[in-house]
Amino acid sequence: MDIPRLRTKRLELLAPSICGLDAYQKFYSDPNASLSYGGPISNSQIWSRLKSDLGSWHLSGFGVWMIRVKDSRSIVGTCGFWQGLDWPRELTWWLLPTARGRGYAYEASIAAISHAYDNYLWHKVETYMNDDNKSAKRLVERLGGTRTRRARFPDGEFRDMYHLPRPPLS
Hints:
Helix content is about 30%, strand content about 25%. It is built from four helices and eight strands.
């Protein structure tokens, strides 16, 4: 599968690869940064997570991209789409703590959402988060997300689902 490369003003969204392993290790070994993503996890689990992110593209036709800052060429996180077995498809992202507060998640999310509507021809893009993930909820609101329902997930937890509209043309 040819994984598309997306570009924004400041970012490149790239296929998951070994060049992102250091960022994955920094993120998933940090207990605070990775709390909402099942972390911290071991190095072997981090390696499996990277392989899973790449494999999603081949099994599902979509996945997450690694976020690379054009100026520094550093990998600072991921953004894209995830869908676990029996879970709803979602826009998801994570950023290294040192990359937060710069608008990277917003910029990458706009690119990913636009790609989903324009290239995958999806009729809807959704996301969800744990109730205590306030920063994710703020980003979803900034993206124009609207709460559509509350649902029980395969892990037994209830979460709000949000519809993310097609971004306006820039």
